[in-house]
Amino acid sequence: MAEIKIEKKKMIWPWVLFGLVISVLLLYFIVFRDNDKDTKAVTEEYISKTNEPDLLSVKENNSTVAAYINFVESTEKEMSLDHVYSNEALLKLIDATSAMANEVGYVIQSDLEKIKEHANMITKDPLKTTHADNIRMADDTLTTILQKIQLAKYPTLAPDIEELKRASESVNPDELTLQQKDAVKNYFAKAADLLKKMN
Questions:
Q1: What is the C-alpha separation between 92 and 13, in angstroms, rounded?
Q2: 8 Å CB contact between 171 and 70
Q3: Residue 64 CB coordination number (10 Å)
Q4: Which ranges in the chain belong to alpha helices (H)?
Q5: Which residues of 134-144 are buried (b: 16+ CB within 10 A; e: fewer)?
Q6: Average of per-residue pLDDT across 77-93
Q7: What is the average pLDDT value for the chain, to the nearest integer?
Q8: What is the b/e burial string over 22-34, where b = at least 16 CB atoms within 10 angstroms of the residue's CB?
Q9: Can you tell me the distance from the alpha carbon of 136 to that of 111, in angstroms, rounded to the nearest whole number?
Q10: How far is C-alpha 122 from the chain's CA centre?
């Protein structure tokens, strides 16, 4: 009887897996190497678009902004129990902020009517103790809007925005407005300084 030689079959699975891994790695490097060039091109294009010249050198001379600045700088009105000064200053600041946004082509996403509502609430009931809370909410929202305008169009005014934020934060919502007249007036003055530089 003849001997039958039995040969063990060679395992091809390791070679198939190895080939598959190499193919995937090759494909990965080919696809993402080109994608990296595209990413760099898109990034450079974005940077060139966002690095528009600072509009600080452009004089807008918007009359609504000028009216707010003039009101804050020249008014002799005192803050009193009826909160007429705070209301008028807030309403003028809302109009000035909206005008400046329009002037530089920045679309305000915030609801200006809501801010006006806060401004008008402080004159409805003079004896109410939440006036500082309404002023602070209006200040914070206006500061956010002005910061967005600053980031988009006036990058060199970042320190001024920080001052405005600190001025807004110094208005304590838990304290009576007439006990913190200086803090409230300081916020209006800082906003006027910022808008003057933008305008």
A1: 78
A2: no
A3: 18
A4: 13-50, 63-74, 84-103, 112-124, 131-153, 158-169, 181-198
A5: bbbbbbbbbbe
A6: 82
A7: 79
A8: eeeeeeeeeeeee
A9: 16
A10: 26
